[in-house]
Amino acid sequence: MRTAMSDFLEIPLAEAAHRLLESERVLIFVHQNPDGDCVGSGFALAEMLRNMGKSAYVVCADEIPKRLRFLMRGQDDCRYTEGMEDGCDLLCAVDTASVSQLGALGALAPKITLSLDHHESNAAFSDNCTCPDAAACGELLFDLYGIFQDMGHLQHLADVCRLLYAAIVSDTGSFKFANTTRDTLLKAADLVDAIRKAEDGGDDLPMINHRLFENRTMTELYAQRAGIDALRFAHSGEVGVVVFTAEMLRENGITLEDIGNIVSLPRAVEGVKIAVSVKQSLEDPTVWRVSSRASVDVDVAAVCAAFGGGGHRRAAGCTVSAPDADTAFSIVAEAFGAVLDRSAMEVKQ
C-alpha cells in the first residue's frame, strides 16, 4: 500500500526480498555516524547478496569507526566515489530513517528505490519495508536471511550470523535497553547457537562482545575524561548534556570517532532522565550533531524530528545550528526539558 505521507510504497519483506533477488548489482547505503546496527546490518545484506552471486558494496558518508571495522566484509572502506551507482540495478538504504541521515550522500536519495529500516520515525524517502517493532534493523535482516534460506537461495552462513548478532546486540545495549523484546531474544538465541556451532575460525561470542563493548583505545579514554569535564546539567539535573567543540578535540588530541558513544556518559549519572551529546562539526562550526537517549518513557524522537532528525522513542538524533557551544547547549536543554515537562503534565492528567 502507499504510505499516508508520501507516494512511496510500504512493502512487505517478501517483496523486498524479491526486488533484491532480481538485482545483480546493489549499492547499499548506511547512515552517517555509523553504529553497530547499521554496519552489521549493511554488511550482512552485502554478504547475503555476494553469496548468491551478486555484486554488493556498502557506502557511508562517514568513515566506519575503528572498533566496528571488524564487521566489514569484502571491503577496505565505505567511501563513495562519483558515479559508483552507475550500472547498479538497485540502490538500497539500510537502517536509515531520513535523507538527512545519509549526510553528504543525501543528494543520491532520489536514486534510492528500496529502504530496510526499523525506525518508527522513518520519513519514507523511497519504497520501504519498515518494522518499528524491531529493536534493531538486524532483526529485519535476520528475517530476510530466513526468507532467502527458505527459498533455497542461501545455505547457513556463519559470518552473516555474526554480523546480525552484532547488529542486534549493539542496538539493544547488550539487551539492556527498553526496545528488547521476546522476539529480539529468540532471534539472538538462534544466532548464538549458529555462531557457537561454526567451525570456520571466525570470531566467537566473547570476542564479538569484547570488540563491541570493551575494546577501547587510549584516545577514547582521554575522550571520556574530557567528557566528564564538559558535562552540563539542566532541568534540575534531569537533562545531562556533554558538549564537545572542535577546539576541545584538538586540545585533547582526540577525534569525533573517539567520542562516538559519549552520550552514554551523562546517561550513567544518577537523576538524569535524558542524556544528550552535542558535537561540533569540523567542516561547519555552526552545525552541531545531537544524540539523545532517554531512561524514562519520553519521546526524544519527536524532539529530534522538530530539528529534521529522528530515530526511536527513547533514542534519536538530529543536527542543530548554533554560533557557539553555549547556544547549542541552551537549544537542546530547552527542547529536551520541554518534553519532560509535557510528559509530567500528561501523567498528572
Structural overview:
- With 349 residues, the protein is of the alpha/beta class.
- Helices cover 38% and strands 17% of the residues.
- The chain has helices spanning 13-22, 36-51, 137-150, 158-171, 182-197, 205-214, 218-229, 246-252, 264-267, 300-305, 325-348, and strands at residues 25-30, 55-60, 90-94, 114-117, 128-130, 231-234, 239-244, 274-280, 287-294, 310-311, 315-321.
- The strands form 2 sheets. A 6-stranded mixed beta sheet has the order 6-7-8-9-11-10. A 5-stranded parallel beta sheet has the order 2-1-3-4-5, with helices on one face.
- Helix 2 packs antiparallel against helix 4 (158-171) and helix 4 (158-171) runs antiparallel to helix 5.
- The longest helix is centred in the last third of the chain and has 24 residues, at 325-348.
- The radius of gyration is 20 Å and the shape is globular.
- The model is unreliable at 1-5 (pLDDT under 50).
User: What's the total count of β strands?
Assistant: 11
Summarize the biggest pleated sheet: 6 strands, mixed
Instruction: Report the CATH architecture of the largest domain.
Output: Alpha-Beta Complex
Number of helices: 11
Radius of gyration: 20 Å
Calculate the terminal CA-CA distance, rounded to whole Å: 37 Å
Strand order, largest beta sheet: 6-7-8-9-11-10
Helix content estimate: 25-40%
- Uncertain segments are 1-5
| Helix/sheet category | alpha/beta
